[in-house]
Q: What sequence folds into this?
């Protein structure tokens, strides 16, 4: 027997229409070099509809790829909705990728137009004439002089001039499984891989972000997405904020700690989302500021050190809310909320629990699978395996990529590349990335757990642990440590700190002090860079 419900496609048009009709007076704020610009949802919606007209005027194909290259702004939010609501596909380009990766991505996606901020134009301008499908470039003035367009083969336009010359359009009906957005992985190994989101997956993921036991985005929130809009679907905040009519504060190009701390205070931000490296800088800037409006500080991208989460709890009353996901999972897949049945735990026990990625999100399934047999491991907090996931907002394959079979199991699970455990309460703890595990004498050392212990030292700003060659054990751990400003540390200090905190055979064979841990294009520790830098190191 079939159900008797209406078959209405899930599409971003519904989220857009709801925001336009119900929340016209709500505000989108953008930080600019000359101050903060404020735009009502009503005016934003009109501009977005005009942008749909612009895409028609430029002759962008019915399902053409519309690339963006810019910061978090209200204009970028217009670009998040106009292409998919007009049947096209928005493709956000990561401004921190290497030139050869950008060239590969633009051609692989077959982008027809690129919208870019003046301030980042120099990063992509030398590549323009090498793109095979780009016919138009649209410049967005963000307070920096425009680049010289005289030598560019593609037609160059000004964003505001284009909008001024058209009328708003009505959106066309789209099918829910139609592509609406695409992003590429950060490409730490080989070329980046394309992930294509459907309207259905984005709407369901938006509902997931609105759930009380995940992020709980609501109309009363003031959302600050520090996470870039080109990183993992902006963690869903761009869609969820619009869907609920929340006030949105876009930080623009200035992601400095003082600027973010000021925004949090003066705009009375309730939800501020970013990677751990961002919050490491912001924490000391919060001293003396009124941040009482904050209710959640979602953090992901890499493991959240216990000392950072507890630092925020002591400073603001709120610990970091660790979440986990990937570009392939849209990305929200797990959030570390504390179950009511665990309220009896001590402060220290709760702090330890928050270093896990928490509980799987409703709508997503997971398993901890043996890396050879794919058999599910028991929930005992000890048995390790690869974290594998599946769900309606999880990718089933990559865009036009022969490597798809490497990342998906025969029975349809996404292989995340994260090694994890799960305890009897259902809390998932990431042990390491499969490529970052250190195999010493046939046994595994977790670089993540070592890093967390080292970063708990009060005089350590950052730490990354990598494996280096050992003639005796195959691999041994090496700690790359950044000393806190004004502090002084020695290798002996680090080893003495670790004594009693880890098992003896995990103890690093070498401690190297560096000025800064290198970062990937999305702000994660780049251990690949460190492994290359210290490739010649041999220890015994």
A:
């Amino acid at each position: 027997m079939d159900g008797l419900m209406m078959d209405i496609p899930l599409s971003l048009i519904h989220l857009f229409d709801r925001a336009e009709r119900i929340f016209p007076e709500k505000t989108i704020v953008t930080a600019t070099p000359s101050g903060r610009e404020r735009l009502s949802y009503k005016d934003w919606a009109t501009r977005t509809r005009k942008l749909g007209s612009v895409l028609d005027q430029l002759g962008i194909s019915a399902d053409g790829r519309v690339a963006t290259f810019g910061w978090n702004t209200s204009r970028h939010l217009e670009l998040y909705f106009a292409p998919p609501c007009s049947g096209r596909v928005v493709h956000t380009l990561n401004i921190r990728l290497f030139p050869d990766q950008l060239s590969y991505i633009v051609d692989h996606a077959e982008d027809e137009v690129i919208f870019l901020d003046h301030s980042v134009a120099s990063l992509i301008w030398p590549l323009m004439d090498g793109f095979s499908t780009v016919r138009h470039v649209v410049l967005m003035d963000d307070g920096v002089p425009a680049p010289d367009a005289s030598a560019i083969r593609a037609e160059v336009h000004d964003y505001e001039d284009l909008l001024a010359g058209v009328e708003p359009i009505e959106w066309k009906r789209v099918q829910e499984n139609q592509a609406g957005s695409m992003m590429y992985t950060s490409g730490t190994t080989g070329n980046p891989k394309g992930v294509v989101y459907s309207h259905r997956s984005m709407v369901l993921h938006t509902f997931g972000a609105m759930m009380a036991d995940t992020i709980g985005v609501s109309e009363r929130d003031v959302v600050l997405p520090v996470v870039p809009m080109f990183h993992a679907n902006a963690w869903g905040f761009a869609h969820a904020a619009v869907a609920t009519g929340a006030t949105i504060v876009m930080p623009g190009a200035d992601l400095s700690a003082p600027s973010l701390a000021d925004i949090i205070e003066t705009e009375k931000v309730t939800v501020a989302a970013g990677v751990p490296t961002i919050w490491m800088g912001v924490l000391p800037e919060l001293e003396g500021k009124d941040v009482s409006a904050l209710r959640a500080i979602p953090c992901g991208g890499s493991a959240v050190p216990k000392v950072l989460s507890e630092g925020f709890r002591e400073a603001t009353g709120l610990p970091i809310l660790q979440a986990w996901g990937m570009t392939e999972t849209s990305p929200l897949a797990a959030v570390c909320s504390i179950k009511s049945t665990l309220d009896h735990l001590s402060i220290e026990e709760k702090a330890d629990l928050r270093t896990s990625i928490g509980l799987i999100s409703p709508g997503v399934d997971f398993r901890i699978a043996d890396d050879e047999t794919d058999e599910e491991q028991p929930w005992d907090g000890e048995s390790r395996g690869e974290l594998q996931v599946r769900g309606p907002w999880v990718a089933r394959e990559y865009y036009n990529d022969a490597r798809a079979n490497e990342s998906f199991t025969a029975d349809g699970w996404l292989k995340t590349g994260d090694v994890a455990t799960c305890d009897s309460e259902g809390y998932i703890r990431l042990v390491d990335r499969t490529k970052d595990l250190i195999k010493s004498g046939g046994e595994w050392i977790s670089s993540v757990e070592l890093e967390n212990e080292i970063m708990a030292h009060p005089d350590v700003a950052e730490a990354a642990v990598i494996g280096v060659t050992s003639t005796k054990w195959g691999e041994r751990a090496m700690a790359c440590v950044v000393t806190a400003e004004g502090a002084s540390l020695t290798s002996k200090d680090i080893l003495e700190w670790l004594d009693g905190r880890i098992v003896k055979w995990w103890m690093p064979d070498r401690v190297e002090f560096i000025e800064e841990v290198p970062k990937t294009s999305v702000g994660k520790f780049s251990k690949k860079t460190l492994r290359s830098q210290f490739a010649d190191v041999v220890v015994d």
Remarks:
- The first strand starts at residue 27 and ends at 32.
- The radius of gyration is 23 Å.
- The first helix runs from residue 12 to 22.
- The chain is about 25% helix and 25% strand.
